[in-house]
Amino acid sequence: MIVYKFGGASISNIERIQQVIQIIENIEAGEKAVLVISAMGKTTNALEKVVDAFFQQKATEALQLFEVIKQQHLTVAKYLLVKEYNTCYARMIDIFTEVEWLLHDKPVRAYDYYYDQIVCCGELLSSTIIHFFCKENGLNTQWIDIRDVLLTDNNFRDAGIIWDITAQKAQQVFLNTAHSIYITQGFIGATTDNESTTLGREGSDFTAAILGNVLEAKSVSIWKDVEGVMSADPKMFKEAVYIPELNYNEVIEMAYYGAQVIHPKTIKPLQNKHIPLLVKCFLNPSLPGTIIHNAKHLHFPPIQILKDKQVLITFQSLDFSFIGGQSIQNIYAFLNALKLIPNLIQFGAISVQICLDDKAEKINELAMLAAEKFDVQVQKNLQLFTVRHYTAAILNAMNAEENVVLRQQTPITLQILKLQKQ
Ligand SMILES: Nc1ncnc2c1ncn2[C@@H]1O[C@H](COP(=O)(O)OP(=O)(O)O)[C@@H](O)[C@H]1O
Ligand SMILES: N[C@@H](CC(=O)OP(=O)(O)O)C(=O)O
Question: Which of 23, 24, 168, 293 satisfies CB 3.0 to 4.6 Å to 276 for a cystine?
């Protein structure tokens, strides 16, 4: 069994979908494969706007925004399909209708619940189109609604996987049937009450890793628009170089510090079962891509990661007492309650500074909660720049940087938090 994940960029237009079909056609005969599909292009962003309008009780606007998404998907299906168009159309109408029914109601539950019920249709639609396009091209694919397999808790928008039931269902669905190529959705799941859930933005990589784990896949490949994992985002750093081989440790660090190429939750399920992760280029499938596995003693180039929209919170004791175990416990309790993960922490005698992603509402809540026990200061509009495996030249250049509010250095990792250029 192999798992392939196709992200939004790989299916963002008709030409790219045609390229993806060639990759699927090249899967070796007799090999079982699960194809995990994300929503096309920026569909999830567009669906988020539908959710916002619906939740603000702007029903007409929500329906209009949804109509645009509908037409875009119908146009793609119409262009790609002839024989299979009617069946595909009927399936798409079912998906549209489910959302439209909901949009005609008034919101009575929490925002996150509606988010998941609406946003999940992006992956349902894209996977339906790809499945029928495979059939149109003579491939005998089987479409699976992942919501019947990947079961989660009801923590909408960041649902937690119920691993044992998911493993059992995945094995029943994907291993006990004669089909060889399955098409399913990334990013979405369902509760045991059949309510749709999502796993967090960009969560399709995680879905591929979950399925790889429970199906004990030979490998998981994620198909991207880059040659493989690079030493930095090539859209931001011209000097970025391709890295042919990485280990799980390095990638988990990169993802944690904000490298956007792989979702941070992807590595653990694969590392736990020693399943290699391949990052491959859909624009040129013959390129080797990057292999991520258990390798030791690798030599890495300097790896640079820029994370925008950071905030620095300084918690200072109210009475000049030292920051000790109890105060740290209090701060961690606040962070845990709000599900906030620090990107950087620095201790002083009577203060502690924590850098976090600027999720405005949660940051305000954190500041309010902590104000009872600390003097709290919040500094916004910051950028976290991390370099792993830095050289002397990089160290000098980073030491010369201006507008730095925090700096941290270990023998491997150098980080500066600086004012974001407006
Ligand atoms: N270290 C890195 N190596 C390669 N690509 C990176 C890196 N950091 C960020 N990226 C960006 O990740 C993009 C691919 O990821 P993404 O667009 O999220 O793919 P998808 O939507 O297909 O999952 C690349 O176009 C690149 O700009
Ligand atoms: N469509 C979802 C899930 C996802 O993983 O997408 P992509 O593979 O395009 O990053 C999102 O945009 O968040």
Answer: 293
